[in-house]
Amino acid sequence: MQITEWDTPAAMVDLDILEANIARLQKYLDEHGVRNRPHVKTHKIPEIAHMQIRAGAVGITCQKISEAEVMAQGGIQDIFLPYNIVGAAKLERLTHLASRVRLSMTADSEFTVRGLSAAAHARGLELPVLVEFDTGGCRCGVQTPEEAFNLANLIAHSPGLRFGGLMTFPLNDNTDPFVTRAKELLGRVDIPIDIVSAGSSAQMYNVHRHPVVNEHRAGQYVYGDRRTVKSGTMSLDDCSFKIIATVVSRPTATRGILDAGSKSLSSDIGQSLEGHGQILEYPDACIYTLSEEHGHVDFSKCAKKPEIGERVTIIANHCCPANNLFNEIVAVRKNEVQVVWPVAARGTVK
Amino acid sequence: MQITEWDTPAAMVDLDILEANIARLQKYLDEHGVRNRPHVKTHKIPEIAHMQIRAGAVGITCQKISEAEVMAQGGIQDIFLPYNIVGAAKLERLTHLASRVRLSMTADSEFTVRGLSAAAHARGLELPVLVEFDTGGCRCGVQTPEEAFNLANLIAHSPGLRFGGLMTFPLNDNTDPFVTRAKELLGRVDIPIDIVSAGSSAQMYNVHRHPVVNEHRAGQYVYGDRRTVKSGTMSLDDCSFKIIATVVSRPTATRGILDAGSKSLSSDIGQSLEGHGQILEYPDACIYTLSEEHGHVDFSKCAKKPEIGERVTIIANHCCPANNLFNEIVAVRKNEVQVVWPVAARGTVK
Fold first, then answer.
1. Residue B303: pLDDT above 90?
2. What is the pLDDT of residue A272?
3. What structural domains does chain A harbor?
């Protein structure tokens, strides 16, 4: 079946482009001796995770235990979970998961470390825990190398745990001085930093400029979206993930309404991005607003305007939440449908 | 089990409040002789739809055929689908659905009418089709009463179809003059307007100010969210739908990070709403940004600040896309878990 016969709205991935994206980043990181540990939150599909590992990734990154559980069920054996796991229910699931796959974690507080230690120790595990540090993302993470030193020290001396290194998001110029200073402090007490893990697709081809980093986590690079294009790391032609939609109304001379809204594209915007997606067939059109099941498009700048019933192809602002809205992704090669992938880890927020 | 023992992030609905919301709107619309046809896109749960019908609703509204199919499978018998259905695949499903439930439709173009007519006629159906008109929502809908007249006329003379009335979103002061003029035009050719259907939760208690309207579609009113509170039609205490989250990091003196991000709360903002949700326990806190699995909170204005591991309760900006992100909704009464509802029509974008 051709993708042109597939009903809309649908999320599709072009396999040729997907494979090229996987190969390109792997080649770059291999050339620079940096371990690749892609973040699967973008696709949430075990078969794509296996493609990434077959290409050379050392394992994967998941954001929630439930996401990691789905990937473990899909046969993935090495999972990094850079999230503060808090609370008895999750700690219990964590130890079960850690007995089935090689699991590593992060923490940014004594609270998280004590919880991990008690749970891991009770099960006779030795869980690697990296210290998360904040390079300006202003999310989680310790704020200073001194705090990183204290927490690493605590991990190294906590039963059931092993200090695994340092982790941050996003990679930027604050990364190097932070790691250098933390290494200096930890060196004094003979605690080595095995892994320095950085993340971001926007910065993925700058990793070699940060020699302190030896492992990288990129998510969006497999799919690509307007944000990664805006960041300059990918072109529109590199985007393998596309939303197909149909024009269902042309109420005025310039307005067109699509059958894809915020429940297909997500409401994510992007720094200085105009509109809610890029229509490939109408590069001058603007998806100026979204209802839940309608995309509102201004075609006034387009010389030719679409008819009702016409299909269009959209590059999303942000592929990760868009992928998460679909039950299945249609994988095509040269427009022929090859497989329909359930988004196995969709909705795994716990 | 108490909801306080339920792992986070989770979406919960308070049944006492839900029932009160359903009863209040029904009573108001009954008092004013307006038929209630709630929009189930908010909850996507057949049992809530049945509660709405048992309270007095004449049927439900769905936004996509796939959503209507799930509701039909759940035993709902009267469904209004105010969407331009375009393309052979959907038209075929539509006729199957119309042979199982009382289905009514909308159209805003000759293209849509011709498709509906051909499909319905081939199956020997007589499908009621309302003309959608635009009151300033700038989505779908004919632009003038004259266009409405022409399309109604076409529907009335199309095999397989019956003209069912007029429909708009949102209800506002443009509604009345439009309908009055359309009625005048259609009266000249003896085409009656049976139903005038308006929509919006923000305007739901203003329906009596628009005597031309005899049917109303509200969605959010069952749940409530910051948008409906902002609109003045509901209070925070009327919100039955809540996201429970846990503080997983306190990296600085004022910043707190929750385990609920845009994949739990959605990225939907709201006119002049600050932040991505209202934390009930910390009314002065601001969820100033969202990562996919983290909520970033500024607690600087709160005298008392939360500890890591503390649970918080969030009223979402927009309950509809938030509900759509969860696989299940935990229904509680006086904090005791009564039932876990699968969000049966989640992801039904087709």
1. yes
2. 86
3. 3-9+227-342 (2.40.37.20), 15-222 (3.20.20.10)
Of A84, A139, A292, the CB nearest to B321: A292
Q: Are the beta carbons of B330 and B13 closer than 8 angstroms?
A: yes
Q: Note the ipTM here.
A: 0.97
**pLDDT band at residue B272 under the 50/70/90 scheme:** confident
Inter-chain touch B7–A89, beta carbons under 8 Å: yes
Is the pLDDT reported for residue B270 higher than 90? no
Q: Do A309 and B87 touch (CB under 8 A)?
A: yes
Model-level pTM? 0.97
Residues A121-148: tens digit of each pLDDT: 999 999 999 999 999 999 999 999 999 9
CA distance A209 to chain B (A): 26
Are the beta carbons of A251 and B142 separated by less than 8 Å? yes
Per the CB < 8 Å rule, is A8 touching B350? yes
Within 8 A by CB and 6+ apart from B144, the residues are none
Of A89, A248, A263, the CB nearest to B349: A263
Residues 6+ apart with CB under 8 A from B104: B79, B80, B81, B127, B128, B129, B130, B164
Q: What does the alpha-carbon distance between residue A187 and residue A210 come to, in Å, rounded to a whole number?
A: 20
DSSP line for B118-133 = HHHHHTT--EEEEEEE
Contact across the interface for A7 and B255, Cβ inside 8 Å: no
